[in-house]
Design goal:
The protein is of the alpha+beta class. The protein contains nine helices and twelve strands.
């Protein structure tokens, strides 16, 4: 029992130290941040358990046989509980790590049982989740509008295989170290060496890594940033991909969103455009009232799909995904092509893009 008491003490110390580790590794790859945090957690827990065992050995000489047996039973129970507590603390963090880690955790039966049967863990690992996880989507409406339910998302991608392949070549993944965390998102080539994504994906960034369809990493520079439309442009000088064309859209159009949920592999999600409307809200920094045209979509989007192009059956971009409804798993929103055109006209007059001033963290 003393060993597990020591382990609990070690875990407590680790939870206090992890935020410091995250701040020291600010800007490092998310995998290294996660590895360092786990090393601190395991090492501190092991050290605490060793100290507890040594203390227990010294005390055990003065304990009668009956009490010693009770101690061993209590230790076994505490051991099981200790393992459960460690899982309980780590599951929410690991489930938000972009890529294969979150996929494995979300598909774990043990993790599913823990999330369903146990209460929310304390926020002691918030710094780690902020560093390797992802923030929520931005708010679309200032006040909840009276919108009709767009219904369930389609189950089949309406684009043919050739169109899917052509579009996928021009879709990229963004890896953005900024503001003490790793921001993940999706983008697409909209002009020669220009990638369009959401402003909230690159907010606060001094550098952007763009990963193309074959996994090659490119250095990017933010050359356009609009916190009101939630659109941004990134120039990638060595990215040679065909720009996607754009087109207006009408309600009831079938389409597909090409995104990288969780910062992982490309996923093509079926979409039905439910409505096109003006949304009154606020900018990313909650400073300015906004009025932007958005498409309401029946689609299942996840964190990491921010900036995904919404493409119709002809292969034309009809919107840029930027948010999901807080109360609906299959309702999402995209910025219309009209807003995208206005963004480009304002940010690149005459087609000339210039590096943007540094944006603030969200």
């Amino acid at each position: 029992l003393s060993g597990w008491a020591g382990l609990l003490l070690g875990v407590s110390v680790a939870l206090a130290v992890i935020p410091l580790v995250v701040s020291i590794l600010d800007g490092a790859d998310d995998a290294w941040i996660l590895l360092a945090a786990l090393v601190v957690l395991v090492a501190s827990a092991a050290f605490g358990q060793v100290l507890g065992l040594q203390l227990g050995e010294r005390l055990r000489g003065n304990i009668s046989g009956r009490v010693g047996s009770a101690d061993r039973v209590a230790g076994a129970v505490a051991g099981s509980v200790g393992v459960l507590v460690v899982f309980w603390l780590l599951v929410p963090t690991l489930a938000e790590v972009p890529g294969w880690i979150s996929a494995q955790v979300r598909g774990s039966f043990v993790a599913e049982v823990i999330e369903e049967r146990l209460p929310e863990p304390p926020d002691a690992l918030s710094a780690l989740r902020d560093a390797v996880g992802e923030r929520s989507f931005p708010t679309v409406f200032d006040e909840a509008p009276d919108l009709a339910d767009p219904g369930p998302a389609p189950t089949q991608v309406p684009l043919d295989q050739r169109t899917q392949a052509l579009v996928a070549e021009s879709v990229v993944r963004l890896h953005v170290p900024a503001c003490g965390r790793i921001q993940q998102g999706t983008g697409f080539v909209a002009a020669d060496r220009i990638v369009i994504t959401n402003a909230h994906v690159v907010a606060g960034a001094s550098e952007v890594t763009v990963i193309d369809d074959v996994g090659v990493r490119h250095a990017g520079v933010v050359v356009g940033f609009d916190p009101e439309r939630d659109l941004a442009a990134v120039r990638v000088d060595d990215l040679d991909r065909r720009p996607l064309v754009t087109a207006p859209v009408e309600p009831d159009t079938l389409a597909a969103a090409f995104g990288h949920p969780g910062g992982g592999e490309l996923r093509i999600a079926p979409v039905r455009i439910a409505d096109v409307l003006k949304a009154k809200g606020r900018d990313l920094y909650d400073e300015v009232e906004t009025l932007r045209e958005v498409v309401v979509m029946a689609v299942n989007l996840r964190l990491g799909d921010s900036g995904a192009p919404v493409v119709d059956q002809r292969g034309a971009v009809v919107g840029v995904a930027f948010a999901v409804a807080p109360d609906g798993d299959e309702t999402a929103y995209g910025v219309t092509v009209a807003e995208l055109d206005a963004f480009i006209a304002a940010q690149a007059p005459g087609g000339q893009w210039q590096p943007s001033a540094a944006s603030d963290c969200l």
